Amino acid sequence: MDKYIIVFCEGDHDIAFLTRILSVNGFLPYMKKVKEFVKPLKDLYIKNLSNKKIEDFEFKFQRPKIKVPYSVFIKDNTLVIFHNFDGDGNILNDGANSIISMYISLNKENRRKIEKYEKLNYRFLYFLDADKEGVENRLNNLKESLDLDELNHYEITNKNDDEFGCYIFYDDLDPNTYGKLEDVLLNIMKPNNKDIFEKSESFISNNTLATDRQRKFICKNLEEKYQGNPQFKEQKSVISIAGQLQFSGSSNAVIIANSDYIKKDDILNNSHCQNIIKLFE
Fold first, then answer.
1. What is the pLDDT of residues 2-46, one digit of tens each?
2. What backbone torsions phi and psi does residue 102 show, to the nearest 5 degrees?
3. What is the pTM (predicted TM-score) of this model?
4. DSSP 3-state of 28
5. What's residue 94's pLDDT?
6. CA dihedral 111, 112, 118, 120 (to 10 degrees)
7. In DSSP terms, which residues pair with 202 in a beta bridge?
8. 234-244 helix and 181-189 helix, angle to the nearest 10 degrees
9. How far is CA 79 from CA 32, 146, 149, 168, in A?
10. pLDDT at res. 212
11. Domains in the chain: ranges and CATH
């Protein structure tokens, strides 16, 4: 391999969208078994997997294990490795830095080996929502976290022997560049499926639950109670309702990955998608 692109994502929705962009641009799923991966990644992942308990793999109830790739794609001599962090806080609060160190340490260890393998050339990419912080604040947070002098939106910068880049999802209609992945998705999905998405939005507006009922419900033999913060996100629910017409009972990640609400021409003609693919070139 000539290059290893390590991708840090907030969640599986991001990964589903990014892999659709990659697929349209000639990338393919990397179907090899872990034991068939190139050294030293093979040994690294086998070690990380061997340290897990069976209950760690209960997908419905456990967070993803960030030291193990969530998905891997390949094109020519470039391998793209996705890590799912289950939230922006887990990326920005040194979580991604620990994964960067994990990969960079492989090259450091290689220098001490008698039987050496080829040096791994890395590019580390971050994908985050602008949210209410905005694109510029996200960029500044990343620069500080990575100790970089410069980091521009959807451009590659260098630090030592490694490359870094990022893409911040924002709403095209927001003059302050706030927003999130769902803004991008709905701007792609809705125009050619207007009736379906308008009816999904109408259903939500006519059936909104009280805030208490948007929280996790604990049901035990001695008590019933609501717990935690409200979990309702209108845009996620719109995508989910529309997606159930095609993939009953499936998550938004499955809908984003497989629905014909996003087609090849949508990706090729969307500015977000075109700026994103530049990061993988």
1. 899 999 999 999 999 999 999 999 999 999 998 898 888 988 988
2. -60, -45
3. 0.91
4. strand
5. 66
6. -60
7. none
8. 40
9. 12, 22, 27, 22
10. 94
11. 3-178+270-278 (3.40.50), 193-260 (no CATH)
